[in-house]
Amino acid sequence: MFAWRSYKGVILGRIVPEAASHADGFSKMKTISKLSKTPKTPQTSAEKSAAKIQNAFRTHQARLKLKSQAAWQIHEKLEYSSEQTESKLKDMFEKLLRASSSLSPSVSKLLHKAKEKELLCSTNPDAIEVDSSYTGLHIQGPITRKLLVDLIETSQQGKILHEKYVCEILHQARVILKSLPNFNHIDLANLKHVFIVGDLHGQLQDLLHIFDSNGLPSTDNAYVFNGDFVDRGNNSVEVILILLTALILYPSSVFLNRGNHEDIMVTVRYGFHNEVNKKYRNRTVPLLDLFKDVFSWLPLYSYVDAGQAKLIIMHGGISDRINLKKLNSLARNRYVSIEVPPESKQGGKKLTEEEDLEYHQVQDLFWSDPDPKGRKGCRPNDDRKLACFFGSDVTEYFLKKYSLSMIIRSHQVKQAGYEFAHNGKLLTIFSASNYCGGHNWGAVIRWDYNQEDPWIISYKTEAVDLNKVSFNKKVTLFEDPAYRSLMEKILSNKTKLLEEFEKADKTKSNRLSLKIWSEIMLEVLVLDLPWLTLRTRLVQEDTKGIIYRTLFDDFVISNPKFQMQNAGIMEDLYYYKDMLLALFNLIDYNHSGFISRNEFSDIIRIILVDENQNGGSEKASNIVNDEYIEELTSAMDFDKNGKIDFNEFLESFRIVNVKG
User: Fold this and answer.
1) Where is the EF-hand domain (predicted)?
2) What is the per-residue pLDDT for 60?
3) Own/partner pairs for 136-144, CB < 8 Å, 24+ apart?
């Protein structure tokens, strides 16, 4: 049997741990015992009132659970939907590499690793002065355990470590990482136990809770951190620096696996780039170059000899083409990005057949997921548009081939913080609780020597006490963030949805059947959600069917700063905003906060021509004409200074609740 532990007590900061229960770790509701009575004795008025209260409460609990499950499903599908943009971005990156000379240097520079001598020179901590006004932590002499504790405390206080000391930590960690093989070999005969931590995504409070509950890393308290240390959260810099400091202190008991977010192209979109720029504006470019290099040296996976059990830990998953012998011998530092393939060793952009196979194996290791529909074999990952889905048969074959007991992976947020699959042979662990404003639990694994099964420890940081929340608030607590995100997705596809609704409305009644309406929602939004169930929240209906235009009644995309002739332009901008932001950051490589209107115009052309090229060149030219481009760029350059401040643009338009 699997075991669960709970931890209580005073925690660092405002952390509120809660123990997971086997049956329902994320539902912490009190139950009311049913009042006893004899069948022959009539109920008193007090007993009748108590029974009514009890029934009402149970009904409410059921509603709460159903609504939280529905909201969770929306949250999970929207998470996948956002990552589908990655395949489009990959295409855009490659287009930029082939684009005009004014655009391609930015992408080329990101994908290019600085020569070691130049990198070490530009980030040499000895050459960086510390201003007398700096009042934060100083690193003098060797890194010690006390310094690790001080770094944790100053990070928790919101103090930013000076760039001199950031470089010091990164340089020391880089030396260790370069000396490691492509995988971490962990022998529990010596270490006795190991904690396995999933995605942290810059959520410092979760890392502090893990350390507070399970102890700091040490020679006899080993940890594996399974990738995705950065992006999404606000403290990616602090999280990665704490982990690298622990690695420097305990290289034989702290092990880091690379995740799909330890990728220079992914960090452009999901926040780490912007965080480094915000915290270290005067030294952004050399620091990003150094982080990029450190990421490329992270090991690909970990192997744990736990005595009776043999474990393999990687961030994403496997495929039917994974070959560990090949992975163990490749030059891992070639992969500055897993989004865009490296240049061929033969010279030129096109990889040889062998190099292409190697590249896709690396991509599978970081991006693959178990098949959500329980299908056998491997197939393209339709949710992420990268890597593959793999079935239980692929897992069984892989474990047998390499004499392994279990695969432990991360990469997917889970409501309870963990999930078993493939007959208990595949375990997903995710350690960022309340991820992206959601309500999931975080979890870590503890595996002891000669134990066949793991301990699983679930928790939440800064969790909401549901027992102190009103009935009405309990129902809306779970659903509001998820439904709001869903409305953003719906409104950014408003034109396409209306086109399909009107096409299907043969009688021009402004109504559609439930079946047709739900099919259109699925087809246009590419979100496999229970639309029939969700319709009461999204749209009005009567005896004749769904009144489909009411889908947009309560919400509009509003931007008072931009007055544009074409009403669809704001919708286009919202639809492409994630991609525009990523490309903006690529062009604005020096992080000045501005790019020229001409540069942004080129970006828009690349995106829109690519999106509309399936409709034929005539259709694309009609949509992407000079007048349209001029109105788009003019809309963003509202102070008419010839430059575009994209951050100000993003903050200025929003989805507004009309009735609110």
Assistant:
1) 575-610, 624-659
2) 54
3) 136/160, 136/161, 136/162, 137/161, 137/162, 137/165, 138/162, 138/165, 139/165, 139/168, 139/169, 143/169, 143/172, 143/245, 143/248, 143/249, 144/249
Per-residue pLDDT at 486: 80
- Mean pLDDT, all residues of the chain: 80
> 102-122 pLDDT, tens per residue?
555 556 666 677 788 999 999
Neighbours of 638 (CB within 10 A): 16
Q: Would the CATH topology of 484-558 be identical to that of 569-610+622-657?
A: yes
Looking at the domain that runs over 484-558, which CATH code has it been given? Answer: 1.10.238
In Å, what is the CA distance from 612 to each residue of 132, 316, 388, 477?
56, 32, 27, 39
Task: Give the CA dihedral 353, 355, 359, 364, nearest 10 degrees.
Answer: 50
At 482 the pLDDT is 66
Instruction: List all residues 6 or more positions away from 589 whose beta carbon is below 8 Å from its beta carbon.
Output: 105, 106, 109, 110, 285
Amino acid at 197: V
Structure-block tokens of residue 267 = 């960090």
Q: Which CATH architecture has domain 78-131+164-316+404-459?
A: 4-Layer Sandwich (3.60)
CB 85 within 8 A of CB 578: yes
Tally of CA atoms within 13 A in the half-sphere of 258 that contains its CB: 32
Return the domain boundaries, the chain. Answer: 78-131+164-316+404-459, 484-558, 569-610+622-657
Kindly report the CATH number that applies to the domain delimited by 569-610+622-657: 1.10.238.10
Residue 53, token pair as written in the block: 């209260």
User: Tell me: the pLDDT tens digits for 317-356?
Assistant: 999 999 999 999 999 999 999 888 888 888 777 899 999 9
Check 75, 162, 201, 261 and give the catalytic one: 261
Residue 49: how many other CB atoms lie within 10 Å: 11
Q: Give the type of residue at 445.
A: I
Least confident span in 133-147, 387-401, 473-487, 513-527:
473-487
The residues, ordered by sequence, that sit 6+ positions from 323 with a Cβ below 8 Å of its Cβ are 361
Ranked by mean pLDDT, which of 6-10, 486-490, 494-498, 613-617 comes out on top? 494-498
193 included as an active-site residue: no
Question: Do 445 and 455 touch, CB atoms closer than 8 A?
Answer: yes
> For residue 371, what pLDDT is reported?
95
- When pLDDT is cut at 50, 70 and 90, the band that residue 384 belongs to is confident
